[in-house]
Amino acid sequence: DTAVSQTPKYLVTQMGNDKSIKCEQNLGHDTMYWYKQDSKKFLKIMFSYNNKELIINETVPNRFSPKSPDKAHLNLHINSLELGDSAVYFCASSPGLAGGVNTGELFFGEGSRLTVL
Amino acid sequence: AQSVAQPEDQVNVAEGNPLTVKCTYSVSGNPYLFWYVQYPNRGLQFLLKYITGDNLVKGSYGFEAEFNKSQTSFHLKKPSALVSDSALYFCAVRDIGAGNKLTFGGGTRVLVKP
Fold this sequence. Notes:
The complex is a heterodimer. Chain A is an all-beta fold.
């Protein structure tokens, strides 16, 4: 019974293509995230949604577009893929804000490894 | 802006010996600090967190961490390391003033040898 699930786990595609990664959490959390882990294992936040509302949008190219149809889902669509987009993309969720503060830990999915050729 | 530093890329330790993974942070307000572990080809797993209260925090798998405000550190420790503790460890800090963003350190690879 996976808490945060991502699909696909592996994705190999050509430059210029458009691809999507889906994420679902069954923890009842209000907040969801996308993180990118590069080849040196460095983790950087891309986006965060709280109850379907975008609350964090880092300096990510606008080729990346997150979509949250409901608070249990956060999908990531990438247009015009480039070589530098190759990475592992992690979805995560956490409990919502209490008094404007989120003290909860993040629960991560298993990651989606994207390879752009 | 908040930041996290993990000064060691890799830590090698013999099984049964104490393990320490270092972390220092910089944040404008009160720090909310976390440790995560990542096994190969897996997602990150939460180990422990410091929000407030006792400076010594106990977490999963026998790990603990000590919050030191004067040294702005949050080192992860385990009294007796196991080979199965070999993994990538990440320290993270949450900045309440920046949308509750969780910023990760660069990670420290731990290798426990039999």
